[in-house]
Amino acid sequence: MTEGEGTDFKVQKDLLKEALMSDFSMSEIQQIWRQILTHFLSISPIEQISMGDHQFSLQESKIINGILKRLKNKEPFQHILGEIEFYGLELKSDPRALIPRPETEELVHWIVEETRTKPLNILDICSGSGCISLALSQAFQDAQVYGYELSRAAIDLSEENALALKLPVVFNCVDVLDIDEFTTSLKKQTKLGLLDIVVSNPPYIPCKEKEAIQELVLKHEPGMALFVPDEDPLLFYRSIAKGILPFLSTSGVLYFECHYLYLEDTRNLLLELGFTNVEKRKDLQGKWRMLKAQK
User: Fold this and answer.
1) Which domain holds residue 57?
2) What pLDDT shows up at residue 38?
3) What's the pLDDT at 76?
4) Is residue 154 part of a domain?
5) I want to staple 202 with a disulfide (CB 3.0 to 4.6 A). Which of 126, 147, 163, 272 is the partner?
6) What are the tens digits of pLDDT across the range 149-188?
């Protein structure tokens, strides 16, 4: 069968499954197949149920095979699709920022379920695509949410997402490892009120782990958002925790997403810096992934 040739539903689905099974789980392949039909061929989920006898046109087969070729070239499906759902929001997804992960959704959910009083000022540090800050802006509509990010390209993406979702998050280009720049930004931002919630999913993978990272991540997602020096994996946590401590409100809370191998070290760092009630939480994979600390 030549590429672009029309074929029947089952044969086309089996071809996709066979080509992708070495890189994806069966549930991921099923999800990719459903999204191809919905997003690229405008076939609704209800219509998909009774498509067993469907014959794809030449054009439809060409579209499917083109996507398959990109997947086999290790391009993330989220980039091919151009979007990803995150905590109920449709976000644009492309190589300018990390693809939001389910673990980060879990972090957002922890914040939402734990927050009893309405926060007024929220800061998301290393905000990337804006997924955390935008989700929190949607959840806490009376709050002013800010995002700090060093990558100008990522800020552009997050601002596009904010505009599309009509969410009033303010993104600023800030180097949180430059303590003077970080402190100056925090002083300006908190003139009207201290921070009630600070959250960060910073770079936390030591460079020595690069070999274990999937090729599609290394090729298509920004390394500056992933990796930290082997000799100092807590680099970002230390700078963020030290910097924001004076700017937290009396009931202010700090949340971190962490590398599971360094979570206890990060927890100890927070305790040494004077944070209290430092809690840890596992992700859905059973790995210690998240921390919560109070001033």
Assistant:
1) 9-73
2) 92
3) 93
4) yes
5) 126
6) 999 999 999 999 999 999 999 999 999 999 999 999 999 9
Report phi then psi at 183, rounded to 5.
Answer: -65, -40
Task: Label residue 61 left, alpha or beta by phi (over 0 means left) and psi (-120 to 50 means alpha).
Answer: alpha
CA distances from 13 to 58, 60, 73, 141, 293 (A): 15, 12, 19, 43, 48
Confidence at residue 2, expressed as pLDDT on a 0 to 100 scale: 43
Low-confidence residues in the chain, pLDDT < 70: 1-6
pLDDT recorded at residue 1: 42
User: Rounded CA gap, 115 and 112, in Å?
Assistant: 6
Q: How many domains does the chain have?
A: 2
Calpha distance 76→93 (Å, rounded): 10
Q: Tell me the sheet residues that pair with 257.
A: 290
Strand ranges across the sheet with 195-200:
170-173, 144-149, 121-125, 195-200, 248-257, 288-294, 276-282
CATH number, position 142: 3.40.50.150
Does residue 54 sit in the same domain as residue 107?
A: no
The model's pTM is 0.90
